[in-house]
Amino acid sequence: MKDELLWQILDGGLEDHLVCELIWERLGYLQAADLVWQAGPSTPPEWSKAYPIAPDFIAERAPTVMLTRSIPTAYKQLLKEELGFKGYQINQLVPRLTRRATAVSWLLAWRKTKDGPVGSINK
Fold first, then answer.
1. Is the pTM value of this prediction over 0.70?
2. CB-side exposure of 9: number of CA atoms within 13 Å?
3. Which residue spans within 1-123 are E strands per DSSP?
4. Regions of the chain where pLDDT drops below 70
5. Which helix (H) or strand (E) holds 83?
């Protein structure tokens, strides 16, 4: 995954559902119908149990919290370390943008650990 795509996510230039699709694919969700993704055989059990239908990480808080918790502590600063992301301005701190930052943070951690178990990054 290229840094340019990650910056597009942070800047709001990629549609929300496409951001979610990037994560769903890496969590092993499979597209069942137009815009409907279901847990697949490679979806980590904690995800398929909590979300048999792929969650909207941009619109919903609970799955984003779960996503955040799955990022290993060692990788929590990758937004700053790898992308040089300085954060959003105070007037930009809205759920949609902060959840996009979480998505990018998770994708960066996935990129670092993609040879390991997807979705259960911290295990």
1. yes
2. 29
3. 29-33, 36-39
4. 93-94, 115-123
5. helix 78-83
Other beta carbons within 10 Å of 96: 11
Give me the residues paired with residue 53 across strands.
38
Do 19 and 57 form a contact (C-beta atoms < 8 A)?
yes
Quote the pLDDT of residue 118: 47
**Two tokens, residue 96:** 């949609």
Name all contacts of 37-46 with Cβ < 8 Å and 24+ positions apart.
Answer: 42/118, 43/119, 44/117, 44/118, 44/119, 44/120, 46/119, 46/120
Number of Cα atoms under 13 Å in the Cβ half of residue 27: 33
Q: Retrieve residue 44's tokens.
A: 């980590």
